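Input chain follows. Return structure tokens only.
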Amino acid sequence: MIHVSVREGPLKFGSWWDRARAETTFARPGAGGLMDQETQQDVLRRLAYAEGHLAGIRRMIEQDTYCVDVLKQTFAVRRAIVKLEQKMLEGHLHHCVVEGVERGDVRVLDELAELYALANR
């Protein structure tokens, strides 16, 4: 697993995309680390699937498609997002949480409690 140290001072980026990638790719100081490659690829594949379905749903609504047909597609998107979340949580539990606990960082447990609360709202 690759760990990135954060340097002092502001970072300069060429575009908003560079900044967004830096903010989402690098581990937060004190956190468990980066998402493993297999999980990242699976999550990105599932996200692309959901994005494609959402675009299709938009077209269906613009074309005044029968509600039941649209709803079937929204259910497919919801299932894809649930599977994406499950995959990310599984990777987080097996990597980031384990590493955090081994370091004695109880914040990872607080984050799990926060996720649990968010999921049950």
